Amino acid sequence: MSPVSSGERGPSHGSLRVCVFTLVFSAVGVGILSLPWAFAVLGMWWGMAILILSGVASLVSMKVLLDVGRATGMNSYQDCVKLYMGSASCRVVEAVLFLDCFGATAAFMNFMFDF
Questions:
Q1: 11 vs 95: which has the higher pLDDT
Q2: Which of 5, 40, 97, 105 has fewest C-beta within 10 Å?
Q3: Where does the Amino acid transporter transmembrane domain start and stop, copy by copy (predicted)?
């Protein structure tokens, strides 16, 4: 018995627009796609200031992480935290990273359902 004749729905097929947006979000990320909204809320000058400040903060944090990784020979962020702050702090960092990934996925899904 086919799903249509039994009253059940078959697999749903997404539209071309949803497929394209899913691929773009996966490749580019939700953050870059929300920049127009941020500039609309903040205005051009505050938006540029916050964007530059975020870029500088990202650059500094990546440089610090790279320097710590080279100095310790560690390959992961968690290993560096465990070395410098102990295993309890490492568990906290792992939980924060998990919540960050979960939040990014939730934001992605929220954005997609608004379409």
A1: 95
A2: 5
A3: 15-111
